[in-house]
Specification:
By secondary structure, the chain is an alpha+beta fold. About 30% of the residues lie in helices and about 25% in strands.
């Protein structure tokens, strides 16, 4: 009986450490929750273990629309993809799903804010009659995007490593319950 109890206690201590050994995000470019003033050429995510080629990520704007990016490249512990030359200022979320070295799928997300200065245009010649009739919609669209992105600053989109501890807790509870049942039977 003591041997069974000892095995159960050893499993209780060893199993959670194995179950919690999933890959986690170590470094991100742009940095998590940062405000960047220039659009980076690439998004680069580095994990604490080697990740599989099936790993992927999406770049989402504040409205939840996916922003196009180059093909995702996975090299060892790093996953990256090139970004378009221009995207509007605002809050962006990087949603990633990786297959870790242990074969388990892990997902998570983080946000960053793009606050690049507006490009200055060369002075234009005198306005013509057509220019006076049709207002340029671009500034209002840009302001609308920035305003909408500003509304999202209080959203609960915080950085998350995506680790699910539920299986480890359930397994631990089962082992403890089994050990107690065996212990109580032995006393009778």
């Amino acid at each position: 009986m003591k041997r069974i109890l000892l095995i159960c206690l050893a499993a209780l201590w060893l199993l959670p450490s194995v179950a919690l050994a999933h890959s986690t995000l170590e470094k991100a470019v742009p940095i998590q929750n940062a405000t960047v003033t220039a659009l980076p050429e690439r998004i680069e995510l580095t994990y604490n273990t080697k990740i599989e080629k099936l790993s992927n990520f999406k770049l989402m704007n504040a409205a939840g629309e996916e922003i196009e990016k180059d093909k995702v490249e996975v090299d060892g512990m790093t996953m990256s993809a090139g970004l378009p030359d221009t995207i509007p200022n605002g809050i962006y979320t990087v949603k990633w799903v990786i297959i870790g070295a242990d074969g388990h799928s892990v997902e998570g997300d983080y946000t960053f804010t793009l606050d690049a200065p507006a490009a200055t245009e060369a002075p234009s010649p005198e306005p013509t009659a057509t220019d006076a009739v049709s207002p340029t919609p671009e500034p209002s669209t840009e302001e609308g995007t920035t305003t909408n992105a500003g509304d999202e600053t209080n959203s609960p989109a915080a950085a998350s490593d995506g680790t699910n501890y539920t299986p480890a807790i359930i397994i631990g509870a089962i082992i403890v319950a089994a050990a107690l049942v065996l212990f109580m039977r032995r006393k009778k």
